[in-house]
Amino acid sequence: MDREPTSHVEATAAAHASIRDEGGGSNAVKLAAAMYSFAVLGMFVSTTGVILSSAKADYGLRDAQVSLLFLAAPVGYLAAAQLNRHVHLRHGRRGIAVAGPLLHVAMAAAVALHPPFPVVLLAWIVGSLGHGVVDGPVCAWAGDLENASAASGLLHGAYSAGAGLGPFLAGTLISREGQGRWYEWFYVLCAVSIVELLIMTFSFRSDDAKSYGKHINDVVTPLLSSELNRKTPTRYRSIIWICASFLLVYVGTESLITGWIVAYMERIRHIPLYAASLCSTAFGLGMAIGRLVLGLVTEKFGVRRAVPIYIVCATVFDVLFAFSPMWTASSSETPAVVLISLVGFCLGPLFPSAIVLLVQLLPRHLHVRAVSVVALVGQVGAALLPFGLGVMAEVVGIQLLPLVVFICLAAMLVLWGWFAYPSATNVI
């Protein structure tokens, strides 16, 4: 999921009414704790693909069965969307700071015990609930700080660091201990989650319900689509759902790559797990660098013109990745690692660019609700597309991964034209 928790923070921060930090304690300390929490979140989310093949072999599962792990993620996020507001009202941000890491500890500890696969699925849901509990509220809090853009950028950087480090560490550990002991990686995740629990609890200890305030803006809870449909004019509703469709495919494509690239490299390219996990790490780091570097390019050319260029470039690199065994040594993983990192580099700025354009196309009073809805739809894509590939792999094999990514990129290009130029496509 792969999920990108802070990619839409800057647009959201610009859109929502303030929730000022009225609790005690230094915001710098809180931000440092939140950065560590997001790094842990990145480690959790990014290592699913690394343990996929090992868990499949260990439990004797088919690709479609082990792909159920992807479907567990939105279940937890949907539950978190309903719970976050109530936790804030009863316990303030302190409740969020305790609940999220505690759920991370529970998930990691449960999986580390090597339980039956149905229990692993339940633990995955618990973990994704923890992700959702931490994600939205911390994003909203950071977005309301005095230096919101800098704070949001630091959070995003921390998440990217965790997402890049996780597959490398997991691949190294599993390669050393043997794929039959894949669950030992969750001892590491349990340990870092305990540290997360301690520092988040300490840093937000004064942020109780009273300090949170009686009049809060519900930016941490995505609204139901029915409410959005009931209160939003038709022309704006069309823009929102086209953007949601774009992000469904985009986030799903990202999750496809992070979820299946390791298995693809192992089975099709016959590369050891340690080297295969480098592809996942390279993709994550490529996305992080792309967001930083291409952000300047996007500002110069504008999101409408820049995004199609990024998508076309990503498509070219995907094709080169698919055919790289024909023009490189079959035993070398370096070209594949470089090319998949370039795909990530090009895809990196797409989510925030979509949110920026969405905010530009909508009136201010719709910003928060619209961003919440499209982000949630993106999470649905992060579950459905990797699961769908797992089902397809049962019939035709995992070698279809580059082709499926190619089709998704083509769909994104079409949807972007529809989204970026609504007047030309009769949306308005």
Automatic annotation (TrEMBL):
Pfam families linked to this entry: MFS_1
Protein name (record): Major facilitator superfamily (MFS) profile domain-containing protein
Organism: Apiospora kogelbergensis
Domain of life according to the entry: Eukaryota
One cellular-component annotation, GO: endomembrane system
Family of the protein in this entry: Belongs to the major facilitator superfamily.
InterPro entries for the chain: MFS, MFS_dom, MFS_trans_sf, MFS_Transporter
Subcellular location: Endomembrane system
PROSITE patterns: MFS
SUPFAM superfamilies: MFS general substrate transporter
